[in-house]
Protein backbone atom coordinates (compact mmCIF):
# COMPACT_ATOMS: atom_id res chain seq x y z
CA UNK A 1 0.00 0.00 0.00
CA UNK A 2 2.80 2.40 0.93
CA UNK A 3 4.37 2.11 -2.52
CA UNK A 4 0.99 2.07 -4.29
CA UNK A 5 1.46 -1.46 -5.65
CA UNK A 6 -2.19 -2.42 -6.21
CA UNK A 7 -1.49 -5.87 -7.70
CA UNK A 8 0.83 -6.63 -4.76
CA UNK A 9 -1.88 -5.51 -2.33
CA UNK A 10 -4.41 -7.74 -4.11
CA UNK A 11 -2.14 -10.80 -3.88
CA UNK A 12 -1.35 -10.13 -0.22
CA UNK A 13 -5.08 -9.80 0.53
CA UNK A 14 -5.71 -13.12 -1.23
CA UNK A 15 -2.98 -14.83 0.80
CA UNK A 16 -4.43 -13.42 4.01
CA UNK A 17 -7.85 -14.69 2.97
CA UNK A 18 -6.53 -18.20 2.35
CA UNK A 19 -4.71 -18.22 5.69
CA UNK A 20 -7.80 -17.03 7.58
CA UNK A 21 -9.81 -19.78 5.84
CA UNK A 22 -7.40 -22.41 7.19
CA UNK A 23 -7.77 -20.85 10.65
CA UNK A 24 -11.56 -21.24 10.33
CA UNK A 25 -12.15 -17.46 10.37
CA UNK A 26 -14.43 -17.62 7.35
CA UNK A 27 -16.10 -14.21 7.49
CA UNK A 28 -12.77 -12.34 7.76
CA UNK A 29 -11.42 -14.58 4.99
CA UNK A 30 -14.25 -13.51 2.65
CA UNK A 31 -13.46 -9.83 3.29
CA UNK A 32 -9.79 -10.32 2.31
CA UNK A 33 -10.60 -12.45 -0.73
CA UNK A 34 -13.19 -9.88 -1.83
CA UNK A 35 -10.50 -7.18 -1.66
CA UNK A 36 -8.32 -9.39 -3.88
CA UNK A 37 -11.26 -9.65 -6.31
CA UNK A 38 -12.09 -5.91 -6.26
CA UNK A 39 -8.51 -4.79 -6.92
CA UNK A 40 -7.99 -7.42 -9.63
CA UNK A 41 -11.13 -6.22 -11.43
CA UNK A 42 -10.11 -2.58 -11.01
CA UNK A 43 -6.66 -3.38 -12.51
CA UNK A 44 -8.11 -5.50 -15.32
CA UNK A 45 -6.10 -8.47 -14.03
CA UNK A 46 -8.14 -11.43 -15.33
CA UNK A 47 -5.85 -14.09 -13.85
CA UNK A 48 -6.01 -12.44 -10.42
CA UNK A 49 -9.78 -12.11 -10.76
CA UNK A 50 -10.15 -15.82 -11.59
CA UNK A 51 -7.96 -16.77 -8.63
CA UNK A 52 -9.95 -14.52 -6.27
CA UNK A 53 -13.28 -15.98 -7.43
CA UNK A 54 -11.92 -19.49 -6.87
CA UNK A 55 -10.61 -18.56 -3.41
CA UNK A 56 -13.96 -17.05 -2.35
CA UNK A 57 -15.65 -20.24 -3.55
CA UNK A 58 -13.19 -22.21 -1.40
CA UNK A 59 -13.95 -20.11 1.69
CA UNK A 60 -17.71 -20.66 1.37
CA UNK A 61 -17.13 -24.35 0.57
CA UNK A 62 -14.97 -24.77 3.69
CA UNK A 63 -17.49 -22.87 5.81
CA UNK A 64 -20.35 -25.02 4.48
CA UNK A 65 -18.44 -28.23 5.18
CA UNK A 66 -17.49 -26.97 8.65
CA UNK A 67 -21.12 -26.16 9.47
CA UNK A 68 -22.43 -29.47 8.11
CA UNK A 69 -19.81 -31.55 9.96
CA UNK A 70 -21.10 -30.12 13.20
CA UNK A 71 -24.55 -31.40 12.25
CA UNK A 72 -23.47 -34.70 10.59
CA UNK A 73 -26.33 -34.87 8.09
CA UNK A 74 -26.60 -36.83 4.87
CA UNK A 75 -25.96 -34.83 1.70
CA UNK A 76 -29.07 -32.90 0.71
CA UNK A 77 -30.61 -32.70 4.20
CA UNK A 78 -29.16 -29.36 5.19
CA UNK A 79 -30.18 -26.49 7.43
CA UNK A 80 -30.87 -23.23 5.56
CA UNK A 81 -27.59 -21.54 6.61
CA UNK A 82 -25.50 -24.45 5.28
CA UNK A 83 -27.49 -24.58 2.04
CA UNK A 84 -27.04 -20.84 1.43
CA UNK A 85 -23.31 -21.04 2.16
CA UNK A 86 -22.80 -23.94 -0.28
CA UNK A 87 -24.92 -22.20 -2.92
CA UNK A 88 -22.65 -19.16 -2.61
CA UNK A 89 -19.60 -21.42 -3.05
CA UNK A 90 -21.20 -22.86 -6.17
CA UNK A 91 -21.92 -19.39 -7.59
CA UNK A 92 -18.29 -18.29 -7.19
CA UNK A 93 -17.00 -21.54 -8.72
CA UNK A 94 -19.37 -20.98 -11.69
CA UNK A 95 -18.02 -17.45 -12.14
CA UNK A 96 -14.47 -18.77 -11.89
CA UNK A 97 -15.25 -21.49 -14.43
CA UNK A 98 -16.59 -19.10 -17.05
CA UNK A 99 -13.54 -16.85 -16.61
CA UNK A 100 -10.96 -19.66 -16.84
CA UNK A 101 -12.78 -20.96 -19.95
CA UNK A 102 -12.33 -17.48 -21.42
CA UNK A 103 -8.63 -17.62 -20.46
CA UNK A 104 -8.32 -21.14 -21.92
CA UNK A 105 -6.86 -22.51 -18.67
CA UNK A 106 -7.80 -26.22 -18.76
CA UNK A 107 -6.13 -27.13 -15.46
CA UNK A 108 -8.11 -24.42 -13.64
CA UNK A 109 -11.28 -25.64 -15.36
CA UNK A 110 -10.60 -29.09 -13.94
CA UNK A 111 -10.32 -27.71 -10.41
CA UNK A 112 -13.53 -25.70 -10.81
CA UNK A 113 -15.45 -28.72 -12.13
CA UNK A 114 -14.25 -30.88 -9.23
CA UNK A 115 -15.30 -28.33 -6.62
CA UNK A 116 -18.65 -27.71 -8.35
CA UNK A 117 -19.22 -31.46 -8.23
CA UNK A 118 -18.42 -31.53 -4.51
CA UNK A 119 -20.68 -28.57 -3.61
CA UNK A 120 -23.58 -29.96 -5.68
CA UNK A 121 -23.11 -33.34 -3.98
CA UNK A 122 -23.35 -31.74 -0.54
CA UNK A 123 -26.46 -29.85 -1.67
CA UNK A 124 -28.03 -33.18 -2.67
CA UNK A 125 -28.05 -32.35 -6.41
CA UNK A 126 -26.56 -35.69 -7.39
CA UNK A 127 -27.23 -35.59 -11.15
CA UNK A 128 -25.55 -32.17 -11.39
CA UNK A 129 -22.67 -33.45 -9.27
CA UNK A 130 -22.20 -36.38 -11.68
CA UNK A 131 -22.14 -34.08 -14.72
CA UNK A 132 -19.43 -31.90 -13.10
CA UNK A 133 -17.34 -34.87 -11.93
CA UNK A 134 -17.45 -36.36 -15.45
CA UNK A 135 -16.00 -33.08 -16.78
CA UNK A 136 -13.37 -33.23 -14.03
CA UNK A 137 -12.54 -36.80 -15.01
CA UNK A 138 -12.08 -35.91 -18.69
CA UNK A 139 -9.65 -33.09 -17.84
CA UNK A 140 -7.73 -35.27 -15.36
CA UNK A 141 -7.26 -37.87 -18.12
CA UNK A 142 -6.19 -35.13 -20.54
CA UNK A 143 -3.40 -34.12 -18.15
CA UNK A 144 -2.54 -37.67 -17.07
CA UNK A 145 -3.32 -36.56 -13.51
CA UNK A 146 -3.87 -39.95 -11.87
CA UNK A 147 -4.63 -38.57 -8.39
CA UNK A 148 -7.37 -36.28 -9.73
CA UNK A 149 -8.72 -39.12 -11.88
CA UNK A 150 -8.85 -41.33 -8.79
CA UNK A 151 -10.76 -38.65 -6.83
CA UNK A 152 -13.22 -38.20 -9.70
CA UNK A 153 -13.98 -41.95 -9.82
CA UNK A 154 -14.50 -41.97 -6.08
CA UNK A 155 -16.83 -38.94 -6.22
CA UNK A 156 -18.78 -40.46 -9.13
CA UNK A 157 -19.21 -43.65 -7.10
CA UNK A 158 -20.52 -41.71 -4.11
CA UNK A 159 -23.03 -39.69 -6.15
CA UNK A 160 -24.43 -42.78 -7.92
CA UNK A 161 -25.05 -44.44 -4.53
CA UNK A 162 -27.50 -41.66 -3.64
CA UNK A 163 -29.30 -42.14 -6.97
CA UNK A 164 -29.67 -45.83 -6.12
CA UNK A 165 -27.41 -46.87 -9.03
CA UNK A 166 -25.33 -49.27 -6.95
CA UNK A 167 -24.08 -51.28 -9.95
CA UNK A 168 -22.59 -48.13 -11.55
CA UNK A 169 -21.10 -47.11 -8.19
CA UNK A 170 -19.35 -50.47 -7.93
CA UNK A 171 -17.73 -49.94 -11.35
CA UNK A 172 -16.45 -46.50 -10.34
CA UNK A 173 -15.16 -47.77 -7.00
CA UNK A 174 -13.29 -50.56 -8.80
CA UNK A 175 -11.57 -47.95 -10.94
CA UNK A 176 -10.75 -46.04 -7.74
CA UNK A 177 -9.26 -49.20 -6.28
CA UNK A 178 -7.21 -49.89 -9.41
CA UNK A 179 -5.76 -46.37 -9.42
CA UNK A 180 -5.07 -46.30 -5.68
CA UNK A 181 -2.96 -49.45 -6.17
CA UNK A 182 -1.15 -47.83 -9.10
CA UNK A 183 -0.50 -44.77 -6.91
CA UNK A 184 0.57 -47.06 -4.03
CA UNK A 185 -1.75 -45.20 -1.66
CA UNK A 186 -2.82 -47.81 0.87
CA UNK A 187 -5.14 -45.58 2.88
CA UNK A 188 -7.12 -44.76 -0.27
CA UNK A 189 -7.04 -48.43 -1.30
CA UNK A 190 -8.57 -49.36 2.07
CA UNK A 191 -11.25 -46.67 1.62
CA UNK A 192 -12.10 -48.06 -1.85
CA UNK A 193 -12.41 -51.59 -0.43
CA UNK A 194 -14.69 -50.26 2.31
CA UNK A 195 -16.89 -48.49 -0.29
CA UNK A 196 -17.03 -51.65 -2.42
CA UNK A 197 -17.96 -53.72 0.63
CA UNK A 198 -20.85 -51.39 1.40
CA UNK A 199 -21.94 -51.23 -2.25
CA UNK A 200 -22.04 -55.02 -2.60
CA UNK A 201 -24.04 -55.19 0.65
CA UNK A 202 -26.56 -52.81 -0.97
CA UNK A 203 -26.53 -55.07 -4.06
CA UNK A 204 -27.14 -58.04 -1.68
CA UNK A 205 -24.01 -59.76 -2.98
CA UNK A 206 -22.79 -60.66 0.49
CA UNK A 207 -19.93 -62.97 -0.54
CA UNK A 208 -18.30 -60.17 -2.47
CA UNK A 209 -19.06 -57.65 0.29
CA UNK A 210 -17.21 -59.87 2.79
CA UNK A 211 -14.27 -60.20 0.40
CA UNK A 212 -13.84 -56.41 0.16
CA UNK A 213 -14.41 -55.78 3.87
CA UNK A 214 -11.70 -58.35 4.65
CA UNK A 215 -9.31 -56.53 2.30
CA UNK A 216 -10.17 -53.30 4.11
CA UNK A 217 -9.49 -54.98 7.45
CA UNK A 218 -6.09 -56.34 6.35
CA UNK A 219 -4.90 -52.90 5.16
CA UNK A 220 -6.21 -51.20 8.30
CA UNK A 221 -4.24 -53.70 10.40
CA UNK A 222 -1.13 -53.20 8.25
CA UNK A 223 -1.37 -49.44 8.69
CA UNK A 224 -1.99 -49.83 12.43
CA UNK A 225 -5.13 -47.72 11.97
CA UNK A 226 -7.31 -48.52 14.99
Automatic annotation (TrEMBL):
Keyword Nucleotide-binding part of the UniProt annotation: no
Gene Ontology MF terms: G-protein alpha-subunit binding; GDP-dissociation inhibitor activity
TM segment ranges: none
Keyword Cell membrane: yes
Sorted UniProt keywords: Cell membrane, Cytoplasm, Membrane, Phosphoprotein, Repeat, TPR repeat
GO cellular component: cell cortex; plasma membrane
TPR repeats: 150-183
PROSITE patterns xrefs: TPR
Subcellular location: Cell membrane; Cytoplasm
One GO BP: establishment of mitotic spindle orientation
Family annotation (InterPro entries): GPSM (IPR052386), TPR-like_helical_dom_sf (IPR011990), TPR_rpt (IPR019734)
The family this protein is said to belong to: Belongs to the GPSM family.
Name of the protein described by the UniProt record: GPSM1 protein
Amino acid sequence: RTIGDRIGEAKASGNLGNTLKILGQFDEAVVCCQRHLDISQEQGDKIGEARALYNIGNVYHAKGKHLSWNMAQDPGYLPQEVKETLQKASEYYERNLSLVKELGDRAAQGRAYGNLGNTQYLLGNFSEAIAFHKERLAIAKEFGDKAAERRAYSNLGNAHIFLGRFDISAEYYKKTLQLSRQLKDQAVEAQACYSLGNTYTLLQDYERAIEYHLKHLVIAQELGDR
